[in-house]
Each structure stands twice: as structure tokens, then as C-alpha cells.
Amino acid sequence: MMNKVPYRSYIKYVFALVLISLSSPVCAETPVWLKQAADDADKGGYALIRPDELKALYDSGKDFLIVDVRPDYEYKGGCLPKAANLEFDLGERLSIRPDKKKEFVRLLGPDKKRMIVLYCRSFR
After folding, report:
1. pTM above the 0.85 mark?
2. Domain ranges of the chain
């Protein structure tokens, strides 16, 4: 039987995760929004990774969970290998519905040390 873990504990593990920016830079300088996102990630205890780092993670054979947080119609149009889909929108930044919380906890599973990668289309 799985022990119940408070939602906040899962958030701690979720944000001890990796977010990806799938867009490539169009100029040599780091965009302001990407620098801010990296700073926010650092403060939150998680990190951003580049596409080449994600490829290395896939190639390593390590166990990790990859979650596509786009709407299901975008997910069905194409997603990264082995990605699960659980849509999140900006309105859910501070709280989520109980049914979505339950699905999120199920998706995370019991292994609190497994790396979690979240990605979306626009990084917003």
C-alpha cells in the first residue's frame, strides 16, 4: 500500500526537476526571458536543460519521467518519445483541481528520486 504524501511534498520533487526549452536561440545572446527563467529555476531548486542534454538523458538509459504539459490536441499532434500527457495551464500555477492532483500524483509514482522532465511548446 502506498503511503499518502502531502501534495506539497510532491511539488517539492516536481520542482526539483528539469524543464526544457525546446526552442533554439536565434541570436548569440541569451534572451532576457530565458535568463529570468533560469534564475527562477535556480531559486526554485530545479534546472533548465537544453535539447542536447535531453538527448543525452534519453541515450543514457536512465529511468526518468517525461511529461508533456500541452493540451491533448497538441500532444496527439506529436510528442517526445515516452512522454506522458498531463495538461497544465497558467491558471494552475498556484493550485490545481483535486482530480488533476490525483492524476498527477499517480503519474509521478512512488519513486521520489526519479528525474522528472516537463516540457511545453512555448515555454510560457
Report:
1. no
2. 7-119
Measured over the CA atoms of residue 7, residue 12, residue 40 and residue 21, the dihedral's sign is negative
- Cα–Cα distance for residue pair 6/90, rounded to 1 Å: 22
- Cβ neighbors of 85 (< 8 A, separation 6 or more) are 67, 68, 69, 70, 72, 75, 79
d(CA 115, CA 16): 8
Cell 492524476 maps to which residue?
Answer: 103
Residues above pLDDT 90, as percent of the chain = 38
* 62-84 confidence digits (pLDDT tens): 999 999 999 999 999 999 999 99
Query: Nearest 5 degrees, angle CA 71-CA 14-CA 10?
Result: 110
Q: Where are the alpha helices (DSSP H) in 1-124?
A: 7-14, 32-44, 51-60, 72-76, 98-108
CA dist., res. 80 & res. 22, Å (int): 11
Distance, CA of 81 to CA of 7 (rounded, Å): 27
Q: Which of 78, 81, 82, 85 is nearest to 107 (CA)?
A: 85
